[in-house]
Amino acid sequence: MMEAAAQERLISVVNEKFEGEIIEAGMVKDFFTLILKREKIVDIIRHLYHHAETQFQYLTTMFAVHYPDQNQIAVVYQLHNLSKNQRIRLKIFLPADNPTTSTLTKVFAAANWMEREAYDFFGVLFQGHPNLKRILNVEDMLIFPMRKEYPLEDQTREDKNDLMFGR
Amino acid sequence: MEAAANKIIVGEKPEGHEGHGFFATKLDKVVGLARKNSIWPLPFATSCCGIEFMATMGAHYDLARFGSERLSFSPRQADLLMVMGTIAKKMGPVLRQVYEQMAEPRWVLSVGACASSGGIFDTYSVLQGIDRIIPVDVYVPGCPPRPEQIIDGVMKIQYLVENESLRRRDSAEYKAMLNKYGIE
Amino acid sequence: MEASADIAPKVVKEEKQYSYLNLGPTHPATHGIFQNVLKMDGEVIVDSTPTIGYIHRAFEKLAEHRPYNQITPITDRMNYCSSPINNIGWHMTVEKLLSVEIPKRVQYLRVIIMELARITDHLVCNAVIGVDTGALTGFVYLFQQRELVYEIYEEICGARLTTNIGRIGGFERDFSPKAWEKIHKFLKEFPLVLKEFEDLLKRNRIFMDRTIGCGGITAERALNYSFSGVNLRAAGVDYDVRAMNPYSSYEDFDFVIPVGTNGDVYDRFMVRQEEMWQSLSIINQAIKKLPEGPYHAKVPDFYLPPKEEVYNNMEALIYHFKIVMGETDVPKGEVYHCVEGGNGELGFYLISDGGRQPFRLHLRRPCFIFYQAYPEMIKGSMLSDAILTMSSMNVIAGELDA
């Protein structure tokens, strides 16, 4: 979806102010993906928001992924430039035992609930978030259910016959 | 030809003694007949089954001809609690509160697979059947059930309403059942 | 000294007291279960705190434990008013992951189904806007038209509401002559009813007074809140996924994207009305230009082989067994695909690690994203305007919580 020239332009726009932050850049299927270091991600997104050549002013979505083998939680941002119809994906990797990063709510108001959802399901802490509470699960839940170590079913059920369910 | 066009099924009248200008029968039969044809439902619609309920209330399937023209959204004024859709564990206390506010006589109709047993959502966040928190009279299976099935469920409720004793809340087994759920 | 103190104006400091109203999860006017605690100054709303999650069914976690074919019924139950769009969106995501080429006929048939689904979704929303302003007649007439569309779905896939329509690769059978008959009947009868409904409300003095200026949002705030779909188009931004990133041959069709100005309830109502007319035009174009061809692509790993081959051919038998038992290994990959759902950009982000079940499926749900802006939209308005704003945004609880 993005030609090679546009990809080069984008990488150079990021490198203008944030040299050395890009770990990897490339096309994944038809989406241009940048893997970045975790510290300055919000500044990079703000830079891409305001820069005249890129102007990524629409946050399509934001979510987290748990990679248990590498013991990491990735946070993925997808941005969209509506006037030029360009989409990019930015990924950062956080250690699973302390997944903290800064909040994006000052740049995009839409990130508010998206970050709450990532906190609710994976435990990612967003510093500076105005209201980081659980959003979809019950308020007093102790675990972060989407992490791979937790099961899908409710473990307190007593009426299911495991033999019949092939377990 | 004309018989099919004018086929009117006359309702069954209860047993009793008939005379010129009067009809004598037992009180609970009359009360049952009146109750069953004027049930005021509380549609507790949460998800997809709620849309099928809206289709049942529409002109095509018309639940209103069973006497349920007036939907009551206030539990204090409702007779039948129709739980339609998935009840998550977060919603459980709310459902319980709504049920406790209803006055006797009250009946519960659980519409759909999710309300009856958790449905396809065998997950940590879904209550596996509302009969874990409130007593249920009739279960309507389906995902979502067709409007005809919902009407069938309502008709079974009507059968229960007609044939119940007038003061079922005083009977021992009803009290024992409510105790099991922790409802006074 | 005291005399001047007597005539000096007294300054009295009063503590403003607000009342809190719980627009609770079960409420006749909220379509779906979500709670709002409103802080009110008399009749005017000062602030509100939404609470969602009352129908959280853990779709994303559930998808990690189901084979790809069994995820389609789960996607049905997100935006259940227009479930074919969710199903076809999911199938297209998997086809993108597998890099499958879909025949033209399948794409056109999918367009017909998706536009029918869009019409039904907008019918529900507009009927409900009518009901919330007091116009109960329109609701009954429009739901009768939904019954016609339900009959079409029944002919094609067997179900009315949560359709599980189509397969990965296309459709399980071509549309029967009865289905075409029902589609033509719908296309003949529906425009008259839609015109009648529109004439009831479009220039109705009461409706216009009630809805113009109510619950508006500017285009800049809407973009910052990542609005998409009708709510964004009513605010003035012409972003439609069908035009910007066309999928399933939408580029072959000629349609107009209606755009509003103020982003208020009246604009959303009119944008939905016009989109329904555009959908009808797209369906007519698709039927006229429908090419001949196969009704499914060649995806032997996911598409059930015909029964004659299963009984005679060892390979087909093995494929049949693996598909039904969900034991197909899917190649590794990471893909994002979005379609224009009833409420906006419905996105599926799928990560496959080579196993039988997805590694991660993230659903970009438009309702979840634009409902965040609700407290800002109702600040300063009256309670009944807040109810009207909520129903005009077409918030569907299944998509909100997932």
In a nutshell, what does this entry contain?
The complex is a heterotrimer of chains A (167), B (184) and C (402). Chain A has 167 residues and is an alpha/beta fold. Chain A is built from three helices and seven strands.
CATH architecture group name of the largest domain in chain C: Orthogonal Bundle
Quaternary structure: heterotrimer
Biggest beta sheet attributes of chain A? 5 strands, mixed
Alpha-carbon distance between the termini of chain C? Answer: 72 Å
**CATH fold-level label of chain A:** Beta Polymerase, domain 2
Corresponding CATH superfamily of chain A = NADH:ubiquinone oxidoreductase Nqo5 subunit
Q: For the terminal residues of chain A, how far apart are their CA atoms?
A: 44 Å
Description of the molecule:
- The complex is a heterotrimer of chains A (167), B (184) and C (402).
- Chain A has a single domain, classed as NADH:ubiquinone oxidoreductase Nqo5 subunit (Beta Polymerase, domain 2, 2-Layer Sandwich), CATH 3.30.460.80.
- Helices cover 22% and strands 29% of the residues of chain A.
- Chain A has 3 helices and 7 strands.
- A 5-stranded mixed sheet of chain A has the order 1-2-5-4-3.
- With 184 residues, chain B is α/β, with parallel strands linked by helices.
- Chain B has a domain at 38-163: 3-Layer(aba) Sandwich (Rossmann fold), CATH 3.40.50.12280.
- Chain B is 36% helix and 13% strand.
- In chain B, helix 4 links the parallel strand 4 (80-84) and strand 5 (107-111).
- The mean pLDDT of chain B is 88.
- Chain C has helices at residues 2-7, 59-63, 72-76, 83-98, 104-133, 137-156, 177-201, 205-211, 219-224, 230-235, 241-244, 265-288, 307-312, 314-325, 366-370, 374-378, 383-392, 397-401, and strands spanning 19-23, 35-41, 44-51, 333-340, 345-352, 360-364.
- The chains are: A alpha/beta (167), B alpha/beta (184), C mainly alpha (402).
- Chains A and B meet through loops of A and loops of B.
Sequence-ordered SSE layout with sheet pairings:
The complex is a heterotrimer of chains A (about 170), B (about 180) and C (about 400).
Chain A lengths: L3 H14 L4 E7 L2 E6 L4 H10 L7 E10 L4 E10 L4 E10 L4 E3 L8 H12 L2 E3 L40
Parallel strand pairs in A: 2-5, 6-7
Antiparallel strand pairs in A: 1-2, 3-4, 4-5
Chain B lengths: L1 H4 L11 E3 L2 E3 L2 H10 L4 E5 L2 H10 L22 E5 L7 H10 L5 E5 L1 H5 L20 E3 L6 H17 L8 H10 L3
Parallel strand pairs in B: 3-4, 4-5, 5-6
Antiparallel strand pairs in B: 1-2
Chain C lengths: L1 H6 L11 E5 L11 E7 L2 E8 L7 H5 L8 H5 L6 H16 L5 H30 L3 H20 L20 H25 L3 H7 L7 H6 L5 H6 L5 H4 L20 H24 L18 H6 L1 H12 L7 E8 L4 E8 L7 E5 L1 H5 L3 H5 L4 H10 L4 H5 L1
Antiparallel strand pairs in C: 1-2, 2-3, 4-5, 5-6
Helix pairs in contact in C: 4-5, 5-6, 5-12, 5-17, 6-7, 7-12
